[in-house]
Amino acid sequence: MRMLDKMEADGITQKQLAERMECSQQYVSKILKGRENLSLETMAKIEYALGISVMQLELAD
Prior knowledge:
61 residues; mainly alpha; 434 Repressor (Amino-terminal Domain)
């Protein structure tokens, strides 16, 4: 959801995101529909392309 919100806020299309991530639009579509298991590399590409954090770490006290 964070990806979609950011894309909408910035007016970014799936095609534009795919270009930024250097992948296909079809792959971006699968990610957005939750049909793709994401590698750490892919998550990093999403973060860089959209300027958001998709990975959150919670450290135990």
